[in-house]
Amino acid sequence: MDGLSKTREETPKESLDHLKLKVAELEWENARLRAEQVAICMANGYVKTVLPYRHLYDLFMQVPAAIVVLEGRNHIVRLANLLTRQILGGEQDIIGLPLRKVTPEAEKQGFITLLDQVYQTGKPYIGKEVPTQQTRPDGTVKEATFNLIYLPWRDARGKVAGVMTFAIEVTTQKESTETLYHELQKALHSQKELDCLKDLFISITGHELRTPLTTIKGYTQLVERAIVKDTNAAPERQNRREGQDKILRSTQNILHQINRMNELVNQLLDFSHIQNQQLELHSTEADLVNLLKQIVEQQSLTHDTHKFKFQIQEEQLWATFDPTRLEQVVDNLIGNALKYSPPDTNITVGVECTSAPNNSTEVVIWVQDEGYGIQEEAQAHIFERFYRIRTNETNRVNGLGLGLYVSHEIVKAHKGRMWLNSKPGKGSTFYVALPFTPCQLP
């Protein structure tokens, strides 16, 4: 009697945020490793001699990121690769100049303060998607977004001698991500509107179909009664009786199809209510044993293809529940047992009080058949909406795949649980467990 458990699915927004975080983490780990490698080479090589190896200098100049080696408290520019020169000064010679003179905006935007902290503490700084403004030689201002790494570099004595900055422009990536996010938000909004329209359509269609079906069913029942009464009143007229029997069978088939369509309409309406969180219960104190007994008697009268059994341990079980909704659940389980088991087999309905997993008391209803059974992989999806089992034995069975989904939601609304035991070829047993608090007998 283990309860069913579900793992909450991520929303599209959560999935996008999770993806963005993972991409950013990978990007920064890669940038950090590259920066540290160059920093180590630069720090070691710069103190002993100014880049004695030509290939190291070429590598430094060609790195597709802005790298600057700053020295001292005033952050004097000692080395700057090509991309840095393009960003900061164009054709201007920036080597030997304090960074605050090369780019006055750096001090206004707080970057000099960050460099001071790295120089004084010896601890690196990492900034993600940092907005910047840079004044071009023609006086125009360019706004851009960078990922930044400030690393301290040390002299031969291990003392901080300066800071190396590593910057990757991510303006385009950030804009693309934001555009994608906004597009996703629009798509979600459109999907929500479509869902509302769909639910409205189902609700209106269901109500509109229910009215003519009720009228047709009423008149068909009148015809059926009239034929039965006329047939019983004139048994000597054999030919007339045979004709009326044919009409009676046709009328009964019409009623069967009407009842089937009514069931489909009701399932669609219930589905719409569940999707909109509008499923209502009208609970009252009632005798659960008596309700189940009435259901079994009614099913046995209308379905003589199977043998019905009713198992009880208590003559009465007074509890609080919604009789109409619970009858809907049991009728659905019995209906499935009829559809998915061969004729002349047993269908057993039972009820008992037992201990729940949390040591409270619960009442358990079960419906057992001797049918085809359900494969284990299908059992995990059996209570999902629109789920249908497709096998050679079940292909002939019609339906929307909503009956068990609606039943499961009704049981959940009662704060109960629902599960099954089944083996292929050996039948199925569906269980419904509801919290049980005994009521006073009337």
Annotation keywords:
442 residues, alpha+beta, Beta-Lactamase, Heat Shock Protein 90, 5-stranded antiparallel β-sheet, 12 helices, 21% strand
How would you describe what is shown here?
The chain contains 12 helices and 12 strands. With 442 residues, it is of the alpha+beta class. It has 3 domains: 12-169, PAS domain (Beta-Lactamase); 190-275; 284-435, Heat Shock Protein 90, CATH 3.30.565.10. The strands form 3 sheets. Strands 2-1-5-4-3 form a 5-stranded antiparallel β-sheet. The chain is elongated, with a radius of gyration of 38 Å. The protein starts with 11 loop residues before the first helix and ends in a 7-residue tail after the last strand. Mean pLDDT is 77; it is low at 1-8 and 45-52.
Quaternary organisation: single chain
Tell me the number of structural domains. Answer: 3
Shape: elongated
Task: Report the total helices.
Answer: 12
Any guess at the CATH architecture of the largest domain? 2-Layer Sandwich
What is the topology, as strand order, of the major beta sheet? 2-1-5-4-3
Strand content bin: 15-25%
SSE inventory with pairings:
Blueprint: H1 12-48, H2 54-62, E1 66-71, E2 76-80, H3 82-88, H4 99-102, H5 105-108, H6 111-121, E3 125-135, E4 141-154, E5 160-169, H7 171-233, H8 238-275, E6 284-287, H9 288-302, E7 307-312, E8 318-321, H10 323-339, E9 346-355, E10 361-369, H11 376-379, H12 403-413, E11 417-422, E12 428-435
Parallel strand pairs: 7-9
Antiparallel strand pairs: 1-2, 1-5, 3-4, 4-5, 6-8, 9-10, 10-12, 11-12
Helix pairs in contact: 1-7, 7-8, 8-12, 9-10, 10-12
